Amino acid sequence: MASIQRKILKDKVKYYIVENYRDENGKRHVYWIPCESRAEAEELLPEVQAAEDAKRKYVRPRYAAKEPLHYASSMGQKYLTVKELVIIYVKRHCAEGGWEARTAAANEGLLNNYVYPVIGDEPITNITTFYMQQYHDDLQTMDSVKPKNGKTVKVSARTVHDIHKILHPAFAHAVRSGLLTVNPTDGVKRPKLEKHKRKQWTMEEVLEGMQACQEPELLLMIGMMYDITMRSGELLGTKWESLELPEDGSLGTLIIENELARLRKDKIEETKTEVHFMFPNIKKDAVTALVLKALKNDESNRINFLSPSIVKMLHYQKRKQEQWKALLGSDFQDFGLVFCHPNGRPITSEVLTDRFKAYLNITSMKEIEFYRLRHSGATSQMDLSGNDIKAVQENLGHASSDMLMNVYLAPIEKKRRDIAMKLEEKVFSKLDWERLFGAEPDTKQKGE
Questions:
Q1: Between 251 and 346, the higher pLDDT residue
Q2: 27 with 131, same domain?
Q3: What average pLDDT does this structure show over 179-183?
Q4: Is 223 domain-assigned?
Q5: How close are the terminal C-alpha atoms of the chain, in Å?
Q6: 38 & 81 share domain
Q7: Are the beta carbons of 229 and 377 closer than 8 angstroms?
């Protein structure tokens, strides 16, 4: 039954009419109709209740008077709804290669959980900047569909930003198509994103961590993430054929052109994601598949140099795999992967994460995420290269240096201390303290 709801958000109070009904198919619909005041809500409530009783969505009279849009509604309605607009935009955007399969699947979840049930049936002519601002504000009062540590939490600021990244270009598409004259999301203020300090290891901690690792394969993984500043998917997707491993103790090379990922099969085709190889599924009816896919941009494709010690570890890894093959014979599934299970099947990122956590649990090392080894490597490379931003950027596979400078690098404590001491030496130590401040006070106690 329709009702008036009040929400207190920071320093203001908002009123809504909640329309709640089940259609002829028994499907439940809930709509939040924003009102300027409680008086307006009380005035509209009987009309909304009547619409609810008739099993239809309430549309305010001022919108019903508008001419139908030339864009026909696939739902048989008079006006194109937000859901229909977004579906049209997403279909075209994916077909043009705007998203890859993993992004499309994540965004589909956002739309199904937070957009379509809340504003999906609203005619786009009903959407104003004020309406969208209320929607963005209200999102953070909703429960997230994903609990955190087993507890229900509210929708995060990051999720609100991710939703806005979908809706803004969708409404821009409506403007370009002549459906709207302005984009109602243009002036929307989004919540501030909290900046979390990313934990990473120093050069000394990386050495300590590698010395504490008793598992040769995990030691190699840690070393490659740090040495070559790879992404986790790139590491797990590394193939022997992409490596050059000299025997004379010189530098090796690795062509980075694949990443291992688990993708939904329907999204692979829908988004035209470039898949180099699809591993056979163990389950016949699986909706996802492990694949070796192309990297996200041209800059990510790169050739990185391998330290001689990493080359030596890779030779050991190859000899170990040859032993597996000899033991299992035809049961070994040889996909040419550097890192795999003893039967040749690929190692997923979840398995790698669990192995790294187990290793941390039996050591005294500072806890970090496995992926942060890439960040640690970037910081060390900047230090050792004399801050050669371009060289480190290319090792990381970034299109620009912004990500490197703003996200990956951690302040180097020793260098910061060196800066302070050099300023002392070059500037502050040359001040005439006695003239400026008088004689320095005697800090010793009398009688000492």
A1: 346
A2: no
A3: 90
A4: yes
A5: 86
A6: no
A7: yes
